[in-house]
């Protein structure tokens, strides 16, 4: 027996709802707000008056030597030294569980044909670390005594990097360039 049954109003409504949900899933749900990744490069300003460089009236080797002396005089530890480049680091502990490291990079390039003036390009990166405690536990089973377990535990502390950023152009570098200039003047007086 064949019947020509019509779907009820409830069945039509549920089919419509299912069709709308399927369409929403297939279309990627554009009506739901989507979180965008931060676009850090959009904040990069490339301003000519705020640079990480200075022009010095000295050959590149002398300029880098002044930078080396300036960093050493402030407690930085040199990790790489070349006649035209150097890297140095310094560690700080502003709070009990916070550790900060500044990594300083200097590149000295000659300007002009004679090479008697040079530009020092510098940047410093500040890395922040925090102390994280983790506990390790183990148990010891002694078969001769039966199933006896003795808990052994230890706490370990380690530094975990929580942030890293380039120190922005401004007073930090200005102070460094002033100190570099002083060492350059002292070099020329000795020569």
Task: Record the SSE blueprint.
Layout: H1 9-26, E1 53-56, H2 60-73, E2 77-82, E3 85-95, E4 98-111, E5 117-142, E6 148-166, H3 171-190
Please explain how this structure is put together.
With 191 residues, this protein is of the alpha+beta class. The protein has a domain at 59-128 and 159-190: TATA-Binding Protein (2-Layer Sandwich). Helix content is 27%, strand content 42%. The protein contains 3 helices and 6 strands; from the N terminus they run αβαβββββα. Strands 1, 2, 3, 4, 5 and 6 form a 6-stranded antiparallel beta sheet that branches. Strand 4 and strand 5 form a beta hairpin. Helix 2 (60-73) crosses helix 3 (171-190). The termini are far apart. The model has no long low-confidence stretch (mean pLDDT 80).
**Estimated structural class:** alpha+beta
What share of residues are in beta strands?
35-45%
- N-to-C series of helices and strands: HEHEEEEEH
Rg over CA atoms, rounded to whole Å, is 32 Å
* CATH topology heading of one domain: TATA-Binding Protein
Number of helices: 3
**How many strand segments?**
6
CATH class of one domain: Alpha Beta
Give the terminus-to-terminus CA distance: 115 Å
Based on Cα principal axes, name the global outline: globular
Helix content: 25-40%
Query: What is the averaged pLDDT score?
Result: 80
CATH architecture annotation name of one domain: 2-Layer Sandwich
Main sheet?
Answer: 6 strands, antiparallel
Any low-confidence stretches, pLDDT <50, length ≥5? none
């Amino acid at each position: 027996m064949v019947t020509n049954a019509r779907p009820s109003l409830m069945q039509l409504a549920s089919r419509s709802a299912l069709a709308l949900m399927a369409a929403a899933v297939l279309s990627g749900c554009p009506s739901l707000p989507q979180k965008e990744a931060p676009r850090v490069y959009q904040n990069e300003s490339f301003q000519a008056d705020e640079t990480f460089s200075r022009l010095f009236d000295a050959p590149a080797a002398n300029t880098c030597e002044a930078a080396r002396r300036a960093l050493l005089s402030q407690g930085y530890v040199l990790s790489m030294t070349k006649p035209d480049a150097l890297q140095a680091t310094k560690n700080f502990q502003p709070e009990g569980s916070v550790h900060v490291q500044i990594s300083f990079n200097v590149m000295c390039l000659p300007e002009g044909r004679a090479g008697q003036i040079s530009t020092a390009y510098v940047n410093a990166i500040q890395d922040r670390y925090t102390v994280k405690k983790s506990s390790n536990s183990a148990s010891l089973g002694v078969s001769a005594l039966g199933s006896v377990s003795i808990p052994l535990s230890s706490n370990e502390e380690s530094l975990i990097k929580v942030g890293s950023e380039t120190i922005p152009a401004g007073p930090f570098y200005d102070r460094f360039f002033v100190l570099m200039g002083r060492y350059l003047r002292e070099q020329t007086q000795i020569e």
